[in-house]
Amino acid sequence: MSHTELIRALPKAELHVHIEGTFEPELMFEIAQRNQIDIPYKSVEEVRQAYNFHNLQSFLDIYYAGANVLIHEEDFYDLAWAYFKKCAEDHVVHTEIFFDPQTHTDRGIAFETVLNGLQRACNDAKTKLGISSYLIMCFLRHLSEEAALKTLEQALPYKNQIIAVGLDSSEVGHPPAKFTRVFAKAREAGFLVVAHAGEEGPPEYVWEALDLLKVNRIDHGVRSEEDPVLMQRLIQEKMPLTVCPLSNLKLCVVDDMQQHNIHRLLQQGVKVTVNSDDPSYFGGYMNDNFFAIQKALNLSEAELKQLAINSFEAAFIDNTEKQSWIKKIQAL
Ligand code: ADE
Ligand code: ZN
Hints:
Distance between the termini: 9 Å
Largest sheet: 8 strands, parallel
Bound molecules: adenine, zinc ion
Low-confidence stretches: none
Active site: 199 (proton donor)
Mean pLDDT: 98
Structural class: alpha/beta
Site (Important for catalytic activity): 220
Number of helices: 17
Helix content: 40-55%
Binding site for substrate: 278
Shape: globular
Number of strands: 8
Strand order of the largest sheet: 1-2-3-4-5-6-7-8
Radius of gyration: 19 Å
Pfam families: A_deaminase
EC number: 3.5.4.2
């Protein structure tokens, strides 16, 4: 089997994908039209041309603007259903999906509208495509901790539909420490916790995510490599990093894919996983991310398998399910 065939054949879990970041321009136009909302682009090509980012903020500005056309439960359903179809094509058999409720509730959309649309797509993904999924609710870190606390309160009645809380949006200047209390409350309420850290922000933010937020996984975390003591901690604690190679390239976290550290992190024993982050904006879904690192970093068959195994080990599914997928990978 060639490396390409192996990548396609591997069952994979996706642990870092923002549902608002899977919004393809074609669907954006369709939903804008039916909701009678003007968008500042004339064509799909013009939208894609605007995807010319130089850092995280330049991306986020466009990403939040795109989300403005999502109004009805059906819109959130269509968005998530389109992503699940991509999962099926890429043999992603389990996914843990971020959503940003504040992006929608701040525009007057009910929390319930967002959650019901996403949940219905998750249910259909299981019955029609055999794909399992969890939802992870992210707090926008450029907003206040008080706003995050309000969002947590809104989520409590839906606790059984949300596996974890996370932290995303503009990293630099908004350290994990800002959200210590809301994460403590979330953990007390029984949510698992994750946080974006060490994408653009320094290794200190990864330390804070571990020590103050007490996360179960770090999202991105690629800048951890700058701190050897932190590296030892991640390795010893088997702390998963949900790495997003095409995202890092598109947002200039790395200059070219040959410079990406995912291979070095893997070789040093860090539990790294491969993920798409915002695939509609960054040029590819799960398999595209695998193809890009394979081409640039020349990973071996065993390393490709290890990345897929890591994705299940780091997932929030039960141990029996993990072992059953891992066995399938080893048998390939
Ligand atoms: N929201 C969506 N994608 C993000 C990323 N890569 N970093 C921080 N916040 C995000
Ligand atoms: Zn992300």
